[in-house]
Amino acid sequence: SPPHCSPKSMYQLAKKLNNEPLSQLALKAIETRLSEVNILDEAFSKFTSRYWHDAIKEMEIALLLQHKSTPAVSHGLPAKIQAVAMGNLPHAASALTALYQQITQIPGQN
Fold first, then answer.
1. How many domains in the chain?
2. Domain residues for 29?
3. Helices and strands (H, E) in the chain, number of each type
4. What pTM was estimated for this model as a whole?
5. Which one of 23, 42, 63, 88 counts the least CB within 10 Å of its CB?
6. Residue 55: CB partners within 8 Å, gap ≥ 6?
7. Are 24 and 71 members of one domain?
């Protein structure tokens, strides 16, 4: 049988090939794998930072806000903020900015 490809790998391939239908299928598959338990790590991930001006960011920030009151997010967010501030997650600064803009409803520059 053919090797299994992750939705993230398929999304990256679709973007490289400019294949919008494949990109949309992969985006939906990525979304189905997100939950209150992993959304914080995913929103602050290197993968998300690579596709920041993209539907990935919008979907993940919306889901992060949807789960902001859950223990996984409310307890985990301070550590993510600290990691960004300390330079341990430099790629995630834009995620923190987008989250802040959404919480405060400040129109952002993409």
1. 2
2. 1-33
3. 7, 0
4. 0.85
5. 88
6. 27
7. no
